[in-house]
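Data availability (excerpt). The following record was deposited with the supplementary files.
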Amino acid sequence: MYNNYGASYQEQRLQQMMEQKQLRDFMRMYTNLVARCFDDCVTDFTSNKLGDKELTCVSRCSIKNMKMNERVGQRFAEENAKLMEEQARLGR
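Predicted structure:
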């Protein structure tokens, strides 16, 4: 009985830790996106609003970075699948 409770607690704790890591990773990615697009696109500090060119640049920058992150995630998943397949083939 105690072992089942311990395993369940460990699984819950592992799940919590994974969720926290995912949130940190997402926040890091978002922060980097904002910083990169701001640095690349915002050039006029005489107004509290973005100009048309700045808006277009920020939009393109955001889309480009989100697509890049999506592609990196896909490649990671592909490589991870290959690794798992190789490990299964070797009997590990």
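Summary of structural features: DSSP finds two helices and no strands in the chain.
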